[in-house]
Amino acid sequence: MILKTLVVGPLEVNCYILGDEKTKEAACIDPGDNVDEILLALADAGLCLKYIINTHGHFDHVGGNSRLKQATGAKFAIHKDDAVLLENVASQSAAFGLDAVSSPPPDMLLKGGDEIRVGSMVIEVIHTPGHTRGGICLFIKNTNSDEKILFTGDTLFAGSIGRTDLPGGSYKDLIASLKNKILPFGDDVKIFPGHGSETTIGRERKFNQFLIDIK
Ligand SMILES: [Zn+2]
Ligand SMILES: [Zn+2]
Fold first, then answer.
1. pLDDT above 90 (res 22)
2. DSSP label of 61
């Protein structure tokens, strides 16, 4: 499996490129900005982009959707409850004093339990509302390796959790998502969040105060 991380845009979003070594098919998670760099990274690895997936509809995660879709013909997917956020990308970014590019409407509306196949990888959609109503985490099942990877968007960070004071946010929902959908994962599962450094479920279970307080 090929995994590349690019830090994009003024809010330093982690954009992930996930590729299958054999079939060269790829998915891009949260292309918030810096589309030229993303295209270069895809070309470097000889990858063909099949899917653009947003973990949620905040402007810093979706700003590159339009150009990346145009350049690659990839299908763009987001959870059905966050599609509405794509309609107000301009006002979202203006609230941060920034000017983000609006997103095209999605080609695919996701829900919890959906699976997206990319070569030998299966991307499982886990609905984790709280940061936004349609926030998702993406669990990668790779038929060629034992490595377990979870992309958590702005739901869970190394040492912290997502903010819940933006429209559609709910602290109660976020805690329920973490408790019921994320904590059941094994300690060896690697976490790749929407901002900041990677971590593991085990490390967060032990040191993340928000998760310690849940138990
Ligand atoms: Zn966000
Ligand atoms: Zn974010």
1. yes
2. H
